[in-house]
TrEMBL record:
<dbReference type="GO" id="GO:0016020">
    <property type="term" value="C:membrane"/>
</dbReference>
<dbReference type="InterPro" id="IPR037185">
    <property type="entry name" value="EmrE-like"/>
</dbReference>
<protein>
    <recommendedName>
        <fullName>EamA domain-containing protein</fullName>
    </recommendedName>
</protein>
<feature type="transmembrane region" description="Helical">
    <location>
        <begin position="73"/>
        <end position="92"/>
    </location>
</feature>
<keyword id="KW-1133">Transmembrane helix</keyword>
<dbReference type="InterPro" id="IPR000620">
    <property type="entry name" value="EamA_dom"/>
</dbReference>
<feature type="domain" description="EamA">
    <location>
        <begin position="14"/>
        <end position="125"/>
    </location>
</feature>
<keyword id="KW-0472">Membrane</keyword>
<feature type="transmembrane region" description="Helical">
    <location>
        <begin position="104"/>
        <end position="121"/>
    </location>
</feature>
<comment type="similarity">
    <text>Belongs to the EamA transporter family.</text>
</comment>
<keyword id="KW-0812">Transmembrane</keyword>
<dbReference type="Pfam" id="PF00892">
    <property type="entry name" value="EamA"/>
</dbReference>
<feature type="transmembrane region" description="Helical">
    <location>
        <begin position="45"/>
        <end position="61"/>
    </location>
</feature>
Amino acid sequence: MFIYAVMKEVLMKNGVWLALFSSLVFSVMNVLVKAVSGTIPPAEIAFFRGLTGTILILVLMRSRQISFSRKGIPMLALRGVLGGLYMLAYFFTLSKIPLTDASILGQMSPVFVIVLSVIFLKEGFPAEP
C-alpha cells in the first residue's frame, strides 16, 4: 500500500510538470503565431502547425510500434475536420485581436460546452455538486 501511495505521488508530480510544460509550449506557440501573422496568412500557419503535429505523431507511433486503428474512422475524420477548423479560426483570431483577448476566448470553450449541452442535449444542472 505504501509503494502504491509513493508511485501515485510521483506520477501526480510528473503530471503536474507535464501540464505546466504543455501550457508553456502552447503559450510560446501563440506568441509565435501572433508574431508571424503579420506576414504569413493564418491558413498557412495552421497548415504547417497541423503538418508538424502529424509528423510528430507519426514518428512517436513508429518508435513505439503502434498501428492505426480501423474503428471509428468517420467520427475520427469529423473530429479532424472540426479540429482543423478550430485551429484555423483560432489562428485567424490571433492575427486580428490582441493575444490576451484571443487566449481568453480560447479558454472559454468549457463555458460554451455547458450552455450548448443545455440547449441541444437538453441536459440539466445537478441539484447538488
